[in-house]
Amino acid sequence: MKSLALLLLLALAVAAVAAYGIYVPIGPAAGTSDEAATYVDIATGTGTQAIAAQLEAAGVLRSRFAFDLLRAVKGGKLIAGEYRFNQPATALEVYLRMARGDIYTIPLTIPEGYNIFEIAQAVASAGFGSREDFLAAERSQTALIADINPNATSLEGYLFPDTYRFPRNATQIQMLAAMVRRFRQVTAQLGLIDNPTGNIARTVILASLIEKEVNQDAERTLVASVFTNRLAEGIPLATDPSVIYAALLDGQYRGAIYASDLQSNSPYNTYRHAGLPPGPIANPGVAALKAALAPAQTDFLYFVADAEGHSRFSTTLKEHSQQVEAYRRALHQPILVPRPYARNPHHHPRSGTR
Known about the structure:
By secondary structure, the chain is mainly α. Helix content is 44%, strand content 7%. Strands 1-2 form a two-stranded antiparallel sheet. The protein has a two-stranded antiparallel ribbon with strand order 3-4. A hairpin with a 5-residue loop joins strand 5 and strand 6. Helix 1 crosses helix 3, helix 8 (200-213) packs across helix 9 (220-232) and helix 9 crosses helix 12 (286-293). It is elongated. It starts with a helix and ends in a 24-residue tail after the last helix. The relative contact order is 0.09.
């Protein structure tokens, strides 16, 4: 009887220790800042016992043996990755987090129409390295799109706008690969990648111009028709966003377009050079890509913004000039010699012959 009682007491003691290790929280104080939080990076292929030892050493487990017990009872697969602990947690909570792969990531949002310079700044602001390193990386990793654009000198246009979540230790090359992968997924759904008769590079360039020139989804196919009509007739596109992009590439953009910018000999200056620019000027979203793939069938050669920010389309320069005059009057501005497109009171009229 005494032996049985001792065994029972021992079992109760073991159970109490196990329960303490499993159900009593441990870890950083609640509300610990990001800088002071505990991060544990579990490498791919790490075994359960090694994971438990790593967590215990980091101070987020009371006992590695309690974690091993949970593994034996709960089963399942533990997901590798970096985990962030900024408040006390029980071993059970830690185990369940790892079983569902609740790894720590940092969000990075790339809006539609961002160019490589804006993406590079967003990457730097999120703490993923310097702007300059990102720009160097995106220019050096063109092999990522060599099969769809073998002549690309940059990944501009192929970094799909989306919200991404990356671990803290993600490299800029890994981030670029993820953005290109997302581009491939979306454009495959649109039928662009697998279209043997399609020109992917041309479509992406056209979509980037559409993305930068119009904010209303309903007007994108009409803007696309203006561009395709002008291309068909050999009329320069004369679109301001491409002039701005030329200045950005040269490190000369001053926040507005100047006469010297319009005289630039850059191949991106669509006032001086007919046809599409040599590459995309931004990273287009789904709506712009769809518009580039299927422009509306119109005779429009011009468009201008109205006072509400919508576009008004014209087939003749005379009609367009009247639209520009109405636009200026609505804004109480002096009438200027119009260019064929205009967006807002602080922006040059959009595109076309002068």
